[in-house]
Amino acid sequence: MKLNIFLLIIILIINLNNNYFSVLADVPSNIFKGACIGIFNQQCEQACQGEYHKTGYCSLKLDCWCKD
After folding, report:
1. Angle value at C-alpha 21, between 36 and 11, nearest 5 degrees
2. Three-state secondary structure along 36-52?
3. 0.90 exceeded by the pTM?
4. Which domains are seen in the chain, by residue range?
5. Chain centre to alpha carbon of residue 30
6. I want to staple 26 with a disulfide (CB 3.0 to 4.6 A). Which of 36, 42, 48, 67 is the partner?
7. DSSP secondary structure string, 4-68?
């Protein structure tokens, strides 16, 4: 039982680190201007495709970010 809990904790730590580093790989768009509203913003998506050939998304601070 203790081994199962230990393995579960290790798996959670690895998953959290992978998510953390994937967010660090995201870059802000320099082309997109204005407030990015909505999860799937067409202008943000187009800016990221043209600038980095990546997928665009809106952050909680209404900025446009580009990810792989």
Report:
1. 125
2. CCCCCCHHHHHHHHHHH
3. no
4. 2-67 (3.30.30.10)
5. 16
6. 67
7. HHHHHHHHHHHHHHHHHHHHHT-EE-SS--S---SSS-HHHHHHHHHHHSSEEEE-TTS-EEEE-
